[in-house]
């Protein structure tokens, strides 16, 4: 088929999650013709795919919803301070219906390739049916944690029981009663699954490679009174979220750990441990995530909590991280996680002592034993931040491959674009503040910045824009500089791009903007108001 007869749009958006839906809303408002392609059968992205038992927010529900519509804010009632996945998916469906987004979204359509054509200054996009489409602008809204990964061990396909990756959980109900269940992985996902299914299963075996520092979520229902207060307070709350580094209601404590007496310190940490949400991570003393001594003291506080909550001292020691400090990896939020290990039918297998050798027809074989199972749950995470890009064959000017360009680490300008890939924008891309953020807040900022750029392009008749290599190099320097004082850069995790299940992803890279959302927002605004410095518009 000749290229110029392909269905053509002003913009193509990849993904109909929180980011893609909002970008669609804004570009349609601008009067552009927009087509969204979504791999899933419905809207919701992360909340469409992650239906595993126990999936829920770690952000306060009312801080997470979209902020762009007063009507939406006032009409939606969150039922809990930290809503569970089914409620969030209902919310996103409500948004899609309310703003009539579905007619512009094509479901069950995974984008496999995108190629920039210089002659026409357009992108050509291919989906898994083989169909092709064209658009002036391409916006990726493909999620930082959407490319799921499985362990690189033999035999995964041989297993005869049920097996699921948490982010590919079936839509039909899964029965647990009486079953012998394995969970591999103890990240934020594994923790939610384990604490939820432990009381339901016949027998639970947790395969842990690295323990994490988990802290209590303290979730509860929102009362009618609270509901009214939340709705009346939205403007002030969003003002606060604009000021805090991660757009949470929790703001860093300006004091150092060493400004106070040991007694005051202990009392403050007790208070944080008893409060809901991420305050313990984000509103702790300012040096807990940067000063190794402060970090060690607080890690010791949490270790004592774990020892108090887990009855068997051997299991307790295994659940306490030894090689990384508190908060240097994503902190899983839990309810009953540590107590689950006190149940007689729950056991912990430490993969540092006995690594998995293979999956068999009937279960899992480690170097020490054969464990029989009816079900294996892979809570093994994602090829984070760049993985979703690597899975699409994206080609820029002269056939340049994005995957190859980013092989040693991403190169971007503002985390929103990459030189050599004109007219392409990356919501929640690498080097963006979004993955250190209460994500919808940073998504809204990304989307609004992109919308302003495309409005500008439309009004000024601009058909091509691209970041300059110099601006990109400068941004990379800035990113590295911001990350340099942070303890998390010395630890393997998805945030540093390490995933040994993926070829070539065994070295740490700087993938995130560490300056905080307010500073990031200011940088983006500066670029826009200077007439897009660092970019060539033509
Ligand atoms: P994470 O946080 O990347 O956790 C994945 C877990 O799976 C982690 O405990 C890994 O151990 C473990 N894992 C991965 N591969 C293997 C193999 N091959 N063998 C044994 N164990 C393995 O992903 P989540 O889904 O929990 O959370 C992702 C984010 O989504 C989360 O931070 C939230 O922000 C939302 P490891 O630590 O690598 O030793």
Q: What do these coordinates show?
A:
It is a single chain. This protein has 538 residues and is an alpha/beta fold. It contains 18 helices and 20 strands. Strands 1, 2, 3, 4, 5, 6, 17 and 18 form an 8-stranded mixed β-sheet that branches. It has a 5-stranded parallel β-sheet with strand order 7-16-8-9-12, covered by helices on one side. The model has no long low-confidence stretch (mean pLDDT 97). The protein binds ligand NA7. Residues 145, 151, 184-190, 209-210, 330, 351, 356, 379-382, 494, 501 line the site of ligand NA7. Ligand NA7 binds at residues 145, 151, 184-190, 209-210, 330, 351, 356, 379-382, 494, 501. Its cofactor is FAD. Belongs to the FAD-binding monooxygenase family.
What secondary-structure arrangement, pairings included, does this model have?
Layout: E1 8-14, H1 18-29, E2 34-37, H2 46-49, H3 61-64, H4 70-75, H5 85-98, E3 105-106, E4 111-117, E5 122-127, E6 132-140, E7 162-165, E8 180-184, H6 188-197, E9 203-208, E10 215-216, H7 224-232, H8 234-243, H9 262-273, H10 279-282, H11 292-309, H12 313-319, E11 333-334, H13 337-340, E12 346-350, E13 356-359, E14 363-366, E15 370-372, E16 375-378, H14 387-390, E17 393-395, H15 402-405, E18 424-426, H16 439-460, E19 465-467, H17 469-483, H18 517-529, E20 535-537
Parallel strand pairs: 1-2, 1-6, 2-3, 4-17, 6-18, 7-16, 8-9, 8-16, 9-12, 10-11
Antiparallel strand pairs: 4-5, 5-6, 13-14, 14-15, 19-20
Helix pairs in contact: 1-16, 16-18
């Amino acid at each position: 088929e000749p290229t110029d007869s392909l269905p053509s749009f002003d913009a193509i958006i990849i993904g109909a999650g929180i980011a893609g839906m909002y970008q669609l809303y804004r570009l349609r408002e601008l009067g552009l013709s927009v087509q969204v392609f979504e791999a899933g059968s419905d809207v919701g992205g992360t909340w469409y795919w992650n239906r595993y038992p126990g999936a829920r927010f770690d952000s306060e529900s009312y801080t997470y919803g979209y902020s762009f519509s007063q009507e939406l804010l006032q009409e939606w009632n969150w039922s809990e301070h930290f809503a569970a996945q089914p409620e969030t998916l209902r919310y996103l469906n409500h948004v899609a219906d309310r703003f009539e987004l579905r007619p512009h979204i094509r479901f069950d359509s995974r984008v496999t390739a995108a190629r920039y054509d210089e002659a026409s200054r357009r992108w050509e996009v291919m989906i898994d049916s083989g169909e092709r489409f064209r658009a002036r602008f391409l916006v990726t809204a493909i999620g930082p944690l959407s490319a799921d990964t499985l362990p690189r061990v033999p035999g995964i396909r041989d297993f005869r029981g049920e097996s699921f990756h948490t982010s590919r959980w079936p839509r039909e109900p899964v029965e647990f009663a009486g079953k012998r269940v394995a969970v591999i992985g103890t990240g934020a996902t594994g923790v939610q699954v384990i604490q939820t299914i432990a009381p339901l299963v016949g027998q639970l075996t947790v395969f842990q490679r690295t323990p994490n520092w988990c802290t209590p979520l303290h979730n509860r229902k929102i009362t009618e009174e609270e509901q009214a207060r939340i709705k009346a307070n939205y403007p002030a709350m969003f003002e606060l979220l604009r000021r805090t580094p991660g757009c949470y209601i929790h703001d860093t404590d300006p004091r150092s750990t060493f400004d106070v007496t040991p007694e005051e310190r202990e009392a403050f940490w007790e208070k944080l441990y008893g409060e809901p949400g991420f305050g313990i991570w984000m509103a702790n003393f300012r040096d807990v995530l940067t000063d190794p001594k402060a970090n060690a003291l607080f890690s010791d506080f949490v270790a004592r909590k774990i020892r108090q909550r887990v009855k068997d001292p051997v299991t307790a020691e295994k659940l306490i991280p030894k090689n990384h400090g508190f908060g240097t990896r994503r902190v899983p939020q839990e309810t009953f996680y540590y107590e689950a290990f006190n149940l007689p039918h729950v056991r912990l297998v430490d993969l540092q002592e006995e690594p998995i050798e293979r999956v068999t027809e009937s279960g899992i074989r480690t170097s020490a034993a054969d464990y029989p199972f009816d079900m294996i749950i892979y809570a093994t995470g994602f090829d984070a931040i760049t993985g979703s890009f690597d899975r699409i064959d994206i080609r820029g000017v002269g056939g340049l491959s994005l995957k190859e360009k980013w092989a040693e680490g991403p190169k971007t300008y503002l985390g929103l674009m990459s030189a050599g890939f004109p007219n392409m924008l990356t919501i929640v891309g690498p080097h963006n503040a979004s993955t250190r953020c209460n994500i919808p807040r940073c998504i809204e900022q990304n989307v609004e910045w992109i919308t302003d750029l495309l409005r500008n392009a439309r009004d000024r008749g601009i058909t091509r824009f691209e970041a300059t290599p110099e601006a990109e190099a400068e941004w990379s320097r800035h990113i590295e500089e911001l990350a340099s004082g942070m303890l998390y850069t010395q630890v393997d995790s998805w945030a540093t791009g390490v995933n040994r299940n993926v070829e070539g992803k065994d070295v740490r890279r700087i993938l995130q903007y560490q300056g905080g959302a307010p500073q990031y927002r200011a940088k983006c605004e500066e670029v826009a108001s200077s007439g897009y410095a660092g970019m060539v518009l033509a």
